[in-house]
Amino acid sequence: GDTEDSDDNDTGSKPDVIAYASVLNAFARSSEEGSAERAESLLQYMEEAYSEGGNDDIKPTVRCYNAVIQAWGACANTDVRSSFKAIELFKRMVQEFESSGDISVKPNIHTFNAIISTLARSTYDKDAAKKACEILNRMERMYLAGDYTVKPDIATYSSVINALA
């Protein structure tokens, strides 16, 4: 076979979380059908490699989760699962953060805005507007309790208005 691609010439370098996050972001920006599923599969691979294999180099961060939520948001008007998948990812992030205290997976303003934006675009989730308002209320409570990383901004309010429209 072609020795250029063989493991014999492996330099020992492996993709790290930054490389994986870049791929996830590409999926998030892609309009190609199946991009969200591929992004989620890659995230699951990263989670398993970290939790089962202890591979710290590809431990998913908030940026990775946000990219996958955005990927689901990109297909929210054509995929019935999009808002449910986005919220499911959010819940996984919260659970991971609350159980481990690991700040690298703590949902931030971008996480919340991506979820609300996904809900605003969802044509299938009949409770999307209600869920968007609930998420906004959660952000406001967290902000008032001293978490300044989730202060609602103009993008937050614009997406909530779009969800209500």
From TrEMBL:
Residues spanning the membrane: none
Keywords, comma-separated and alphabetical: Repeat
Signal peptide: none
Gene3D superfamilies per record: Tetratricopeptide repeat domain
Name of a matching Pfam family: PPR_3
Coiled coil: none
Name this protein carries in UniProt: Pentacotripeptide-repeat region of PRORP domain-containing protein
